[in-house]
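note to self — DONT lose this again. spent like an hour looking for the file last time. sequence + predicted structure for the chain T wanted, 224 res
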Amino acid sequence: MALVNTIIFDMDGTLFQTNKILEKSLHDTFNELKKKGLWNEVTPIEKYREIMGVPLEEVWKVLLPNGTDQTRIEANHYFQDKLMEHIVKGNGALYTNADRLLANLQQSGYTLFIASNGQQNYLNSICEFYQLNRWVKEVFSIESIASQDKGDLVKTIIKKYNLKEAIVVGDRSSDFNAASANGFQSIGCCFDFAKEEELVKANYIVNDLLEIEDILLELNGSQA
């Protein structure tokens, strides 16, 4: 097996503390739907937490099961605008040690990517606000994949950069499945949206992002 010199990170619940802006943005969105007479219940915060990590098209089918396609599209646009508004206001945050880890890995010669089920403009807002492009080579959104499958998104990175080996870092099944589908190992982040029954699919589990450095040393040391 080749040395692991490429890391593919998820964004939400892995590098970025989406929970800090999620509730506010969802409340804003569903309050707007109420004003239009399209919603009359409480904001489905917990339901969203349960499905974090799935493509947004699926998210809105779950959150608005009786809504029309147009209503779901409009709700998503409003939601995205609110998320980005909160990002640029500084209401979000990276996870503890995220910037330190990315800097350390990049300085150590690792190539870093982000592969996310989030939309491109949203991802760009996070990267710009926190200057992640100092360390991350490219950010890939599920928007670019017709199948909406994260395994195919990772495959796009493999083909574009001719990758032989990489490790995927994330917090949900879609991340671990994407790694497995492409013959890669995965690291599960036991953070806000992580579920125990999904983390068992990961090859490694961390409670702090800096623990990833030790895993990489162990992996590459055993292959040296």
